Amino acid sequence: MEENDDLQENHFEMDMQMMGRKTTVKKSWDESKKMWEIAAPAMITTVTQFSIGFVTSAFVGHLGEMELAAVSIVHNVIEGFVDGVMLGMGSALETLCGQAVGAGQMNLLGIYMQRSWIITGVTALVFTPFYVFASPLLQLLHQDKDISNLAGKYSIWVIPQLFAYAVNYPIQKFLQAQSRVWVMTIISVVALAFHVLLNWVLVTKLDHGLAGAAIAGNISWWLVVLGQIVYVVCGYFPEAWTGFSWSALKSLASFLKLSIASAVMLCLEVWYFTTLILMVGRLDNPEIAVDAISICMNLQLWALTIALGFNAAISVRVSNELGAGNPKAAKFSAVVTLLTSTAIGVVFIALILINKNDFPKVFTEKPVVMKEASKLSYFLAATIFLDSIQPVLYGVAVGAGWQVSVALINIGCYYIIGLPVGAVLGYKLKLGVKGIWSGMLAGCLLQTVILFCGFLRTNWQKEAAKAEKHVRTWGGSQESQQSSSENIMNR
Prior knowledge:
The chain has helices at about 1-60, 65-90, 90-100, 110-130, 135-140, 145-155, 160-175, 180-205, 210-235, 250-280, 285-325, 325-355, 365-375, 375-400, 405-430, 430-455, 460-475, 475-485. It is mainly α. The protein folds into 2 domains: about 40-250, no CATH class; about 250-475, no CATH class. Helix 1 packs across helix 11 (about 285-325) and helix 12 (about 325-355) runs antiparallel to helix 14 (about 375-400). The longest helix has about 60 residues, at about 1-60.
């Protein structure tokens, strides 16, 4: 009898373990589906919107080397700087809108988006002089005078795009928080196709040169923005968008603080890798080194596009679950996304290392450059591996509202440790590109380890309580009750 009882008890324990495994697998599958529903369209949107500038450069390249250099310097220096700030400013909505959705306070999303529009609109005005005085600014940075003058003209012509960015990013976060991203993706794809057609007509057929390229870019970006606005205001979001409200003018100071923290967090990341190329450019005989590292950075950006899709997905999932008071679900979502992104990163690493002698051929036919780029394949692989983890941890930070903490971590790891170590290894110890990149990787690794340790030590119950406080502080129930009476559009 006792043997039978023991046997039955063992069978029962095995059945329970099997049921537990099946439940975990099912939960992981369900969470993975939710994650991919946001990540896949976010990846496509990122690629298509990034490609608008790529298409412009491709058409301008046929006008001449001077024109291509002018457009490239505006895209990479002027727009790269401003666009990073603008995207960071808009990223505050990822925290607040996502948590409001989870809390069921859908009517706050429209108010949050309007607050962000105010902040990004003012930011665009502040940065307008960078576009107007681009020529003297570029000359101060020791750029060629003729290229700077031409870039100055082009930068003035593309000022409308600056204000398109100011409107675009808050709408994107508004839509992502509600997992309504496929329409945004379709609009971006249509705008890109239209952009190709516009450039062909204005630049190639009508021979309007840089002015034609600028007009095409302005129209295409505002097509993206207007398409998204029409989608938002045409009744598809009856709870989240009820018209313009005076409530958007409240709590602007607190909202601005989170927006600035988001911008600083993102810009410190972007500028860090921009500095890598600038540092390499100061080496002796930098031409080959810059070409080689540019090839590697292009591949890194392609891989990063995938990780940024996961970044968008996890920030939405974490903010939604914390706002709904489900801390365990938020943590589980983060774990699933982190494992998925890391696995894809490992696949990219394997492809790079297997093809380390071949991937440079995609970009160049010069044997010296190909050889130099091939030597950097291990550094590229390490960077891609960190990029498969880091953006997910960033997404968790944005979803939970840790922007200030991450910004401080970035300053310490990147600018107090990474850059000085890279400078010593590259310049003092004469290790060149490998030394500079090693220092940068040291900063990235330290930052990733700190963020990962912070993730492991997170009290998710407290984060859910903070999310509830965020919803109350930046537009709680009292404000949401008043918003309908203060609705300007429906008065």
